[in-house]
């Protein structure tokens, strides 16, 4: 009798094979936990740079405009200076003595200490052309090139100025629009107060047949005088540097030969 021994089955494997489809599918669906040092995605809202992107071009454009405006003003100023000083030439001339045709019967106090400037009719025509051709704001720095003394030149032409009147180039243009020669005289720190000097000139002018008008303000006295073809004006001001001293500016207009 044949005895058949019971076959023992091999023990089941402790680990499932790697090619198990069910297990592989399960592993593929798993989500691995994030690594501890892995960079995490940041979902922050982008910063708003709209304000900076607009303000910077605006600031640059503003600076560019100011720079261009400055260059334009410098160019205009240089052009006016060239026209007045170099092209037109000396419109007002400084001299050491009075012209030979200056009115002889017009008394001048301390003539040796006076600064004298002369402007003839041709020079006045040049000044008028410049005033008409160029803007007033550009010519204002060059008034001393256009007239020996603007205020007394205007007063000497018969125009009146109030205590608060502003000197304007249009008034100077009217004052220059004549065929007379203009002589300007000025003194610094004469050792007399303004009242004494005005009294002296009033007496001398009236004695020479001039019609005299006087305008008195707090700090200065204006005199205008006229006789035939001779007219003039003067301003006497207290000196602010020396006590009992005065400053005088005078303009005399006359037709050449008279």
Report on this structure.
It is a single chain. The protein has about 260 residues and is α+β, with helices and mostly antiparallel strands. The chain has a domain of about 170 residues. It is built from 8 helices and 7 strands; from the N terminus they run H-H-E-E-H-H-H-H-H-E-H-E-E-E-E. A 7-stranded antiparallel sheet has the order 1-2-3-7-6-5-4, with helices on both faces. Helix 3 runs antiparallel to helix 7 and helix 6 crosses helix 7. The longest helix has about 40 residues. The chain is elongated and about 75 Å long. The N terminus is likely disordered.
- Rg: 48 Å
Helix content: 25-40%
Task: Note the main sheet.
Answer: 7 strands, antiparallel
C-alpha termini separation: 180 Å
- Write out the strand line-up for the largest beta sheet, numbering strands in chain order: 1-2-3-7-6-5-4
Poorly predicted ranges (pLDDT <50, ≥5 residues)? 1-6, 17-29
The averaged pLDDT comes out at 77
């Amino acid at each position: 009798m044949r005895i058949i021994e019971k076959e023992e089955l091999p023990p089941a494997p402790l680990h499932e094979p790697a090619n198990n489809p069910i297990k592989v599918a399960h592993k593929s669906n798993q989500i691995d936990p994030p690594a501890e040092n892995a960079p995490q995605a940041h979902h922050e809202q982008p910063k708003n740079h709209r304000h900076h992107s607009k303000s910077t071009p605006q600031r640059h454009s503003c600076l560019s405009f100011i720079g261009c405006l400055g260059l334009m003003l410098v160019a205009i100023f240089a052009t006016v200076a060239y026209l007045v000083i170099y092209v037109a030439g000396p419109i007002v001339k400084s001299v050491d003595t009075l012209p030979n045709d200056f009115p002889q019967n017009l008394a001048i106090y301390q003539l040796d200490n006076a600064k004298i400037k002369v402007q003839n009719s041709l020079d006045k025509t040049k000044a008028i052309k410049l005033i008409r051709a160029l803007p007033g704001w550009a010519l204002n720095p060059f008034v001393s090139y256009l007239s020996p003394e603007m205020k007394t030149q205007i007063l000497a032409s018969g125009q009146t100025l109030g205590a608060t009147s502003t000197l304007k180039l249009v008034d100077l243009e009217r004052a220059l629009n004549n065929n007379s020669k203009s002589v300007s005289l000025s003194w610094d720190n004469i050792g007399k107060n303004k009242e004494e000097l005005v009294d002296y000139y009033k007496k001398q002018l009236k004695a020479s047949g001039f019609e005299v008008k006087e305008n008195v303000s707090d700090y200065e006295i204006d005199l205008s005088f006229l006789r035939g073809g001779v007219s003039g004006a003067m301003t006497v001001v207290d000196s602010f540097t020396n006590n009992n001293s005065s400053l005088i500016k005078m303009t005399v207009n006359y037709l050449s030969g008279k």
